[in-house]
Design goal:
With about 260 residues, this protein is α/β, with parallel strands linked by helices. It is built from twelve helices and ten strands. The chain has two domains: about 190 residues, 2-enoyl-CoA Hydratase, Chain A, domain 1; about 55 residues, Lyase 2-enoyl-coa Hydratase, Chain  A, domain 2. Helix 4 packs across helix 6 and helix 10 runs antiparallel to helix 11. The longest helix is centred in the last third of the chain and has 19 residues. It is globular and about 55 Å long. About 0% of the residues have low confidence.
Length: about 260
Amino acid sequence: MTDGKITVTIADRVADITLDRPGKHNAMTPAMTGELMRACDALEHDESVRVVLLKGAGERAFSAGSDIQSLAQYKSAWAFRARVEYATAIRTLSKPVIAVLKGWVLGGGLEMALASDIRLAGRSAKFGTPEVKHGWIPGAGGTQMLPRLIGYGPALRLLLTGDTIDAEAALRLGLVEELVDDAELPARANALAKQIAGFKPVAVQAIKAAVRASMSMSVDDGLRVENELNTHCFSGSDHLEGIKAFSEKSGKTKDTN
């Protein structure tokens, strides 16, 4: 089995996590999963990091999911049940995660993209859930997150056929938020990450928490959570700076009219 690794770089309040196994389409091994869990935990507690970019090394794939051979390492169904899922590491981050997608985005690779908050795709990206062809189902959120993102029917069509779709189809379905040429993808991802990183972390993380909560509760409960999180934002002094800045900007606008 070709070894892979997880690489992390940090600059300008943005962390890059790269799945680094390009010779195997960045397929994930248990060792890489452990590295990813540790990397995400470190970034969660690093106050210098405000946004995370999730990438795959090379040009051919974001990730093809789990290394099939590594699945044979589990001695029983119960050992498999107790595994650590790499998409879970992404999902547990309170900071926004932007998935930067090109080439193959398959199986667990798609689930890592689904665990992210925003998905940017290059035109080379191809998406699919091939698990049914092997006799199993997605195990890290595919059956739960995909229908929430693109709807019941479209999700079942992908899940039950194992077919792949191209980036244009993914954009039409709402599977990705933006589509750009591959050559433009790194710059666009960095620009978006820096834009979000420029805002107050308490507001950014509260927005993510409120939206995530809305996926599993009623509107009334969600509104209560939103109000509590908004109150939390007002408990510090950051909101006063925002009010002052807005007032100053508003005053300048009036002066120019």
